[in-house]
């Protein structure tokens, strides 16, 4: 384990002492036995306290605990859970077996939000839940990962709707002493008194902001959260960590400085040896500034410092829309870094250039992240492609396929999202170690052995659970809005557990087009009110308080849900969070997702649904574009080349058509157990579960980014940074002299033999050594999937005059220079991790 974890001691009867450990380790959030143990202490309080075990144990009547301490049934279960926990914490892991040489250095994972559990509300949506699931799988796999984030005093808001569907954002000030977090302590080896709490200080503009460091224990690994709400800070600075995505641009840049710079300082103060850094979305990219500054203090030149940082940094981008990337006006940026620029005046321009967007005269966080990270990726295959298009100009307009941004498709943490009832069922048919081998497709084939009746009956029970939960949610909304007793009571009749049930829940951002299904209300009416084959819809989601079009979507759904013809059949639930998300992705029949393509970078809620046998019905965007195979769900079609309005019309038509002609008939194909439907549920689980889980995803990150970064960094810094210095000097030299490199002449007049001919090119290099470049012919060939680039390396034939070299290659005889092919030169080096690490290219 990376660090020692010492839970706070909650005052408990002696026999229950170890419940403190369980309450302070988020391990409980993905272990059903632990969750049900806490629930058993007092089910009502447990629900009332958002399933927060720390609050439960601190606020409950001590007499109840005394009673549990005498209850042998309870004690037996508790001991079994503790046993499970101890075994988990001590087990040998995938990482310790695969990479025993890398267990001593942490991978620091920086993210502005983390969604671990509803009891710790420091997430707003998919990005946070992904970060939480990433940390949980890292723990399961034994990867020494330390998370870094901010601790928001008011978290993200609670959503309340009024009697017209208007969203009211309720903010709650959390008592940190009642959350499952503990203060981080100064390591004893620094001469600290035991229990001395850890603080760091960060320069923000001309001020010093002090941060308290907290620790969330996520299984084997820590996540550190920074908190500015301290008396020593000015009232304005105390507010900096008040809310997730609150405030204005000033709040935003200041938060990002606290996260990036403060996070690195916290790692140092903790004495945690850190070998690689993961920037999860641009918000965290300022970590590069602090790390460069550290290297400058060691006496390294800026360009060498940057090479070391690049080698050890991984960047994941999540936003396929240019406007979604954080950018700050240069004047604001200069103001907030005035202290840094005062102390490191000679490097001011170099720091600014790292994120400078000339077109907008702004400092772009994604540019900074890309300049600071040698390895970058999008979050699905399609999003990788969209990102390469979007950042092609940033890389010197090379061919889009060569832009150095890859992809690692998002997944979800299976133990968190799979219904306990299904875990039990799957365990009866899958090999005993299935949870440790989720990424193995062969293992999932065994799902086909489950009798249809068994899978269907578990699914039905989950749907009934959802219906009860939804009714309670609706009742609470009506009660709070002082509706009549009759209106409150009628909710009892809402939602039919036997009807085909479709779920739509996610943040209400406009690109997700939550109202698409309302394009033709009469047609919807016919679906919903079919007496033989009824369909019902559940909606849920929050809109950001500043997103007025998003809130208008909520009002529209609410209005439809109140129409007589849709009453109790189209419902909108309040306060979408991880708790409600679990009920929905486990309990509906179909998961609907119809974003404007390609705006959904990945999407993950459909992945949660898939593992639970809920069938996806979605636009071919994000993960579904690669997950859908024609048999494991349904696609919502449109001509992707058409304008947005046409696509919207076609998508809407497609939704109705597929529902009417395929989904409804399949669901109602047989009375009793609908075998054709269950067959598709199984197809969905078998084909999607092994791929779209975070174990597979985090193993990919480890194999493809973390371990290569750790190794490359070790190589770069050895012998007084010898390699880093060489690479940095080399890059600088090439950049400064590249303008000398010119292709003077291309001759394609060679005789055609065997349908091939020889082409020669004359290249003038100036001071650049010809062996530090690659000279290539580029042409395009038509293949089944479209036009593909073909690269033919050219060989140096002889030196014509000083620093001018003749190259030659053989290519198909019909290709003409200028019309069909071009010749290009770009720098290469054995130390580049990607072909176009230096975005320099000369072509003719
Ligand atoms: C999984 C999840 C999301 C992400 O859903 P998408 O459909 O991928 O946007 C958002 N919010 C919560 C609470 C979630 O659990």
TrEMBL record:
Key word S-adenosyl-L-methionine present: no
Reaction(s) this enzyme catalyzes, per UniProt: [(1->4)-alpha-D-glucosyl](n) + phosphate = [(1->4)-alpha-D-glucosyl](n-1) + alpha-D-glucose 1-phosphate
Residue positions where N6-(pyridoxal phosphate)lysine is found in the record: 608
Protein keywords: Allosteric enzyme, Pyridoxal phosphate
Domain DUF3417: 12-120
Any one GO BP annotation for this protein: carbohydrate metabolic process
Family matches, as SUPFAM superfamilies: UDP-Glycosyltransferase/glycogen phosphorylase
PANTHER family, per database record: GLYCOGEN PHOSPHORYLASE
Record family assignment: Belongs to the glycogen phosphorylase family.
Stated name of the protein: Alpha-glucan phosphorylase
